[in-house]
Structure formats: structure tokens, C-alpha cells
Write a structure and sequence with these properties.
- The chain has a seven-stranded parallel sheet. Strands 2-3-4 form a three-stranded antiparallel sheet.
- The chain folds into two domains: 97 residues, no CATH class; 291 residues, TIM Barrel (Alpha-Beta Barrel).
- It is an alpha/beta fold and 540 residues long.
- 46% of the residues lie in helices and 9% in strands.
- The protein is elongated and about 105 Å long.
């Protein structure tokens, strides 16, 4: 009734009466609530047997106990329930009322574990890892020597700790890009659902994505306000989609995003601003300081509703993460490539002023992410391998340090992604206080060896790997991919136990068919974080 998306009574009923657009994978989206409902439902037939059994007890024995002065609870416990021993379910309740706590715990664990294995069946495969884990099932699994399985959140939290994690988490570092390029394989919602203000539709496609991708973190979304949701809708006309804002009296035609993001027939892509800031005043005008939205206002405005619904449902066992850009990388959007490089070389004070203001905006985004429930921030850094080490140390590193320290002050982990060849700026990169380091894969004329990176980091932080996104992940064989995964994981297993344990992560793009699933390699544009001992084979 609960566990299959399309064919069960509850989903069919709710869809036909208009409360749902499509069936909901209840176990995947609401694992705790589903298990509680199953446990309550399971108890019903036991109560039927109990009532039937009580009706067969000899009245003379109960009357004799009453004459002897036994109260009703005493008669129930000492007379009625022991007389029901032939009934297995009631015998189980008898153990509950008369035996020692360990005996009851073992019996209760067996009963609930049986519900999980028999009643849930294959639907367990749809749940987020650990989403259906309950204490009694854990007790049975541990007693039987079975590895229970950590939640995605637990895996990543452990991977970010000094001890590392015994299980391998898998994540998509650029989730938005992956979802854009694999939309039809991830969800049956229309392509424009990503821009729909409707909370139910947002929940549907995001839940579909969580189930289809199988990763261990998710990006916490900042949704539209309740006022906007009440006045904004998307309508389809003539094969096109339009976003209609009834409050503002405006309508905008939506364009479907291209796979890959770029127009293959267009010229080289670059930001080319109409007005290039040349003075401090023009920089200040172009980069307003934050102040429009306070993190404390998110719950009251409804902007946190989607994040909370996901954390309470489909993403409840996943590690919540958000993204910000480094202050220097944001300068590309202000000046474009050519003007940015010229400013770095000829007007560093002007660039520093822009970085100061961009830092305030990135910190504000981090504060909003923390208010939504994020536990980690992915910091994107691009193009800075094209400036010299001195410029990086002056215009990038100081602002990154302050950004990371601000993220830490909010109680979140900082994951730093440096795009490009790190060789000229290794000293500055290693001086930063991030919790995890990500480097680009070796496909642009330079090579990044993970063993060398692990040795440089020395166990101070996680290290993201660099699988070749095209030659290996898109076109390579399963055997080649497995071998490369093992090669990139192995540096963490070779470090002596008396040294801090490095935690490694593998990163790369992947087609949808190479995403984690049973009997598939657990890797996409992914992060894999094993600890220093051979990790068990992933089951995701």
C-alpha cells in the first residue's frame, strides 16, 4: 500500500482525488514515517488474536483470582496472559510483561527486523542509505555480524573527521549541472519544473533526483516565498512554457537549458560586460553589499520551506551542502576574462576592493545556507591558475582564508575546489584551513597525482580525487574505472597508523548510466572518502 510509487492503493487514490500529481515513493521520501505506519499496521492483527484468545480463557479461574483479591492488572498479567501461551503473538506479549529486558529486546528486534526484511522487500533499495535503519534492526545486524550501513550524512561527517570513514560516500560536486544534463533520466516532471514556484512540484523532482542519483549529500535549496508561490505559476501555450507573475503583471518565456550548457555552434564563450568598472566608486556601484535578506527571516517568509521538507523527508539521511564562489573568481563576472587579467596585473588595488565586497556577499550566502540547514560549503575557484603566485597570494588566498574562517564560525565544513594546475601556488593552497581539498582532473596538459596530493596534505584534510571525466568515465571500461578508483583510494591505506589519517575523495563527471546502483561502480562526478583500512564493498 505504501511502498511502490505507481501501483499501490494509497498512491492511486491520492492521485485520482487530485492530492498528488504522481505517486510518491513513500519509503524513499519518508522512511521514518513509513516504518512507523507499518509497525502500527502490523500491530493490528496481533490485537485481533489477543482479543480472540482472551475470549477463550476459563471464567472460573479469573473469578477465583478476583475472590482472592487480585486487581485487574494482576489478573491480566498473572492469569489471563499466561493462559494465552498457545497463541504465538500473545506469547510474545507475555515475554514483554514477565521476562528480563534483554530477552524482550531480542524478541522485539526479531519482530521488527522481520517487518523490514519481509514487508518492505525490494522497496528498501529505494530508500536513502540508512533511511530505514532502526535501533532494533541495528541490534540484530550487529549481533549477526552484519554491517548495518551508515547514512550519507554519517559517512561524510566521518570522512571530514581525522579518523575517516569505514564506508565510502558518493556525491555529485556540481549537482545542478548533472541534473540539467540528465533531466529525462532522473525525473518524469517537465523540464521547466526547476523554475516552478510550486512547492509540491519542487519536492517531486528533487525527490526523484535523490532516488535516481543515489548520492550521499544534497544541495539545500532556497525556495520562493509563500507570497511568490501564491502569485507565480508556469503555463504552457503552443509548445512553450511561460512564467506568469500575477502580482507584478509580468510574463516571461522560459528557455530549456542546453545539455553541456554551451551552444556548440557559437564562438568562444566569455563574459563581456557592457560597462567595465574602472574606479573604486564604479566597483562599489557594481557590487552592492548584502543587506536585503536576513537569515532569520527565512522561516517566516517561507523561503526555508523546501529545504526543511527535504530534510524531513527524502534527504533526511543525506549531508546537506551548499555552494559559493571564491571572491577572486567572482571578479570574472564583473570584468570578463580579458579585463580581469588586465586588472590583476595593472590595478590590483581595484581587484582587492572588488574581492572585499564579493567576500561579504559569499559570507552572506554561507549564512543563508547555514540557516537552511547546510553542514558544508563547496567553495569554487576558477581561472586563478592563470595568474602568478604573487597575485594569488595577494588577491586570492587572504580572502579565501577569511571565507573559510567565516564558514567555520557558522559551524559548517569548508570544501575548497581549485580548478587548474596547482603547481605554482601549492604553498598558498596548503596554507588554507579548509576541511577538504578538491583538484581538477588531469586533462588540460598537466597531471595531478593523488598520492602526491595526499602526501602534501599530510592527513590535515580530505583530498578529492581527479578521475578523467571523458577518457575514463564516459568512454572507459568498467575494469579500467575500477582499477583507477582503487589506485586513487590506495594512498590513504598506505599511511602508517601513527600518522593522521588522510581521507581521499574521487571526483569526476559521469553519464547517468555510471551512477551508483547495485552492481555498478559507486562513482560519478563524485567524492569517495574511505578511511585508512580497506573499505567494504559499497552496496549503494
Amino acid at each position: 500500500m505504501f511502498l511502490e510509487r505507481d501501483a499501490r492503493f494509497l498512491n492511486v487514490l491520492l492521485v485520482r482525488i487530485g492530492l498528488l500529481r504522481a505517486g510518491v515513493p513513500w519509503l524513499a521520501s519518508y522512511p521514518r514515517g513509513t516504518l512507523i505506519s507499518l509497525a502500527i499496521w502490523q500491530a493490528g492483527w496481533g490485537m485481533v488474536i489477543l482479543l480472540a484468545g482472551l475470549g477463550t480463557n476459563p471464567e472460573e479461574l479469573i473469578d477465583a483470582a478476583r475472590v482472592d483479591g487480585a486487581s485487574y492488572p494482576q489478573r491480566l498479567r498473572r492469569v489471563s496472559l499466561p493462559l494465552l501461551s498457545p497463541f504465538p503473538t500473545v506469547r510474545a506479549m507475555n515475554v514483554l510483561t514477565t521476562s528480563t529486558p534483554p530477552e524482550w529486546m531480542l524478541l522485539a528486534a526479531v519482530i521488527l527486523f522481520t517487518i523490514l526484511l519481509l514487508r518492505l522487500g525490494k522497496a528498501l533499495d529505494e530508500a536513502p542509505k540508512g533511511g530505514s535503519t532502526v535501533l532494533r534492526a541495528v541490534a540484530v545486524e550487529r549481533a549477526a555480524g552484519i554491517q548495518c550501513g551508515m547514512t550519507g550524512r554519517q559517512k561524510i561527517q566521518q570522512a571530514l573527521s581525522r579518523d575517516g570513514t569505514p564506508e565510502i560516500p558518493v556525491v555529485i560536486c556540481c549537482e545542478e549541472v548533472f541534473v540539467r544534463d540528465h533531466w529525462g533520466e532522473i525525473t518524469r516532471e517537465p523540464w521547466w519544473a526547476r523554475e516552478d514556484a510550486d512547492l509540491d512540484r519542487q519536492m517531486q523532482w528533487r525527490t526523484d533526483a535523490i532516488r535516481a542519483i543515489g548520492q550521499d549529500w544534497f544541495e539545500v535549496p532556497l525556495c520562493t516565498s509563500r507570497t511568490e508561490r501564491a502569485n507565480v505559476s508556469i503555463v504552457e501555450r503552443g509548445g512553450e512554457a511561460f512564467r506568469v507573475d500575477r502580482l507584478a503583471g509580468m510574463e516571461r518565456r522560459l528557455e530549456r537549458q542546453r545539455v553541456g550548457g554551451w551552444d556548440p555552434g557559437a564562438a568562444n564563450h566569455s563574459v563581456r560586460p557592457v560597462r567595465v568598472p574602472r574606479t573604486p566608486e564604479e566597483v562599489d556601484e557594481a557590487i552592492p553589499l548584502p543587506g536585503g535578506e536576513d537569515a532569520g527571516d527565512l522561516p517566516s517568509s517561507g523561503r526555508a520551506d523546501l529545504a526543511r521538507a527535504l530534510l524531513d523527508g527524502a534527504a533526511g539521511e543525506l549531508f546537506p551542502v551548499s555552494h559559493v564562489s571564491s571572491p577572486l573568481w567572482l571578479c570574472y563576472g564583473l570584468w570578463g576574462f580579458e579585463e580581469m587579467m588586465a586588472a590583476v596585473a595593472g590595478a590590483p588595488d581595484l581587484v582587492a576592493r572588488a574581492c572585499e565586497r564579493f567576500l561579504a556577499r559569499s559570507l552572506e550566502r554561507a549564512r543563508l545556507a547555514a540557516a537552511l540547514g547546510a553542514e558544508g560549503i563547496w567553495i569554487e575557484e576558477c581561472l586563478t591558475d592563470l595568474i602568478g603566485p604573487d597575485a594569488f597570494s595577494r588577491l586570492a588566498a587572504p580572502y579565501l582564508r577569511r571565507l573559510i574562517e567565516g564558514i567555520h564560525s557558522l559551524g559548517m565544513a569548508a570544501i575548497y575546489y581549485y580548478c587548474g594546475n596547482p603547481a605554482p601556488v601549492w604553498g598558498a593552497i596548503l596554507s588554507l584551513p579548509y576541511d577538504a581539498l578538491s583538484l581538477e582532473e588531469s586533462k588540460k596538459g598537466f597531471r595531478i597525482d593523488i598520492k602526491e596530493v595526499v602526501d602534501r596534505v599530510g592527513g590535515r584534510a580530505c583530498v578529492l580525487g581527479n578521475l578523467d571525466a571523458i577518457t575514463l568515465l564516459e568512454h572507459g571500461s568498467e575494469e579500467a574505472l575500477r582499477a583507477e578508483i582503487g589506485r586513487q583510494i590506495s594512498p590513504g591505506e598506505e599511511v602508517p597508523r601513527d600518522r593522521p589519517r588522510p581521507r581521499s575523495i574521487l571526483s569526476a563527471y559521469s553519464p547517468r548510466s555510471r551512477m551508483p546502483s547495485a552492481a555498478r561502480i559507486p562513482l560519478a562526478h563524485a567524492a569517495v572518502m574511505p578511511r585508512l583500512v580497506p573499505a567494504p564493498s559499497p552496496t549503494r
